Amino acid sequence: MSPDAVVHLGTQALHMVLWLSLPMLAVALIVGVAISLFQAVTQIQEMTLTFVPKIVAVFACMVIAAPWLTRTMVTFTRRLFESIPGLLR
Fold first, then answer.
1. Best exposed site among 36, 53, 57, 67 by fewest CB in 10 Å?
2. pTM of the model
């Protein structure tokens, strides 16, 4: 297995991780900004107000995106397993 193949596989894995985490990160960002605006407008500075809605929103996003996440990970793993014979040359 050449160093180029290892770098290519690592790059593909990192790209997949970024794509899989993007929906949850985007939801957390949007909810965080909305809560910050709400706190600034109402001048309520409660620290726990920021965590619970974010956790609920990210969990809901994970539940909604679960089929896509699973399909993407299974496809990547299948391609990786199918490419093993070619990598060992």
1. 67
2. 0.79
